[in-house]
Amino acid sequence: MGPVQFNVHNQTKYDLKVQSSNGATAEAVAGASTTLDFTPDDTNITNAMRWYADGICILQGSVAWSAGGSGADDGWTTSNIICMSGEMNGEGFSGCNEGWVEMQPYNLMANGGEVTVTYTNA
Question: How is the chain split among helix, strand and coil, in percent rounded to 5?
Fold first, then answer.
């Protein structure tokens, strides 16, 4: 895989913490953004996206990519609180209490590239 730049925009009223499967972490408080950079050695990446209210985790979603499949999950709950929209190498995705959104083609991120996701209040 090639390198990947992961841009996260947290336009919710909750704080967001990102924990990647390669050990990288980042935070974006309510209204802030953050970026994580991955090298070609970072393959099969899953990023746990966790939202916090008053220090308590209230929701978890994910953004993941590999040479064989990519997608995102806005964190399904019985009461919808977060929506997502974004792009993986120019291919758009979105969801609002959607659950997993599978990106096509399956090898969309095989050569690396750019992933951007924006979270908003539902």
Answer: 0, 60, 40
